[in-house]
Amino acid sequence: MTPHAMTEICSVLGIARRTAYYVGRARPEGRYRRADDEAVLQQIRAVTTSRATYGYRWVWAMVNRTFRVRYNRKRIRRVMQLHGLMLAPRVHRRQGRPHVGQIRQPAANQRWCSDVCSIPGWSGEVISVAFAIDCHDREVAASPRPLTGADIRTLMDRTRWARFGEAALKAPHAIQWLSDNGPQYTATATVRYAHELGLVPITTPAYSPESNGLAEAFVGTFKRDYVDGAELRDAETVLAQIGGWFEDYNTQAPHSGLGMRSPHDYRAVMRRTAVDAATTSPATPHLAQDTRSPGGPLSAYPSKIGFESVRASS
User: Fold this and answer.
1) How would residue 263 be classed by pLDDT, with cut points 50, 70 and 90?
2) Are residues 47 and 138 in the same domain?
3) How far is CA 23 from CA 14, 61, 150, in A?
4) CA atoms within a 13 Å half-sphere pointing along the CA-CB vector of 53
5) Is the same domain home to 200 and 298?
6) Range of 56's domain?
7) Are residues 74 and 154 in the same domain?
8) Is 249 within a domain?
9) CA distance 152 to 187
């Protein structure tokens, strides 16, 4: 025992007296539990049964949206950990090549990125799906069929109709069309048709998939959440499901970059915000159409995607 008072000792150590008197007690059954955790668990299982690839953040967003509740994200994680529903942590293996370009855009309909995803069927058939995704709100349009330059041109039409309606003959302002250097994208007819629609085709540097990272990330998400575990008996079976997969991605799948909203929900919020803003201030004009001149309106776009300059198609 020490002759010094507890107050003096705590003052020297810089701690509160209640800390010195505190006696820790083990929680019963190890971890903290709440009486209504069973109801939360049933709601979680209702989501994970059909979306087994979703981590706790996506499950949290879907549970709150589906059951109209406001659970804390940590609570969903705790309940999933208690019942072994957590996914294995991902291991990120980063390469030494720097990519300082910004693919995402600050507003919708400024850049659409496109790529091709291959889905091998159990019968040996391979289904190719060309898609275009907006680099701001993540909405996707797709064309599942054997791919040629004509199919990419059809995809451009479908994307334009999905964004502006079928009455739109061309984009109301210049929009970048970002893709790799595949022959179906760089074909002369495809490039000319893109310009006719008001699009500005640009390609990534060779051997640099990171420069179209948003499209590459979508391919990984699409295969993980929809293709893996699906019925892939033959091409006809796959094609019958693809439309529903893309519809679910656009209307249901939460995105962390969109505040855990789906692309359609996010666009609805942006439209309401734009309507509210229009009542108080004049609308900001869009970029003018492509004038095909080096110093024209397209000079406002960033000149780099990835680690080196992007080559504009001509």
Assistant:
1) very high
2) no
3) 19, 38, 75
4) 13
5) yes
6) 6-82
7) no
8) yes
9) 10
pLDDT tens-digit map of 32-46: 888 899 999 999 999
My answer on whether 55 and 199 are in the same domain is no
* Separation CA 288–CA 10 (nearest Å): 70
Give residue 27's pLDDT.
65
What average pLDDT score do residues 16-39 get? 81
- Do 44 and 187 share a domain, yes or no? no
Domain count, the chain: 2
Q: pLDDT per residue over 297-309, tens digit each?
A: 344 444 444 433 3
| Residue 195 placed within a domain | yes
The predicted structure's pLDDT at residue 57:
94
Strand partners, 202: 178, 312
Condensed to tens digits (0 to 9), the pLDDT of residues 172-219 reads 999 999 999 989 999 999 999 999 999 999 998 887 877 888 999 999
In a domain, 106, yes or no: no
Q: Any residues with CB less than 8 A from the CB of 92 and at least 6 apart, and which?
A: none
Q: What is the identity of the amino acid at 9?
A: I
**Which residues are CB-contacts of 187 (< 8 A; sequence separation ≥ 6)?**
149, 152
| Cβ neighbours around 148 below 10 Å, total | 15
Same domain, 263 and 176: yes
Residue-wise pLDDT for 269-286, tens only, equals 998 988 888 887 655 555
d(CA 114, CA 180): 8
Domain edge (last residue) among 40, 64, 82: 82
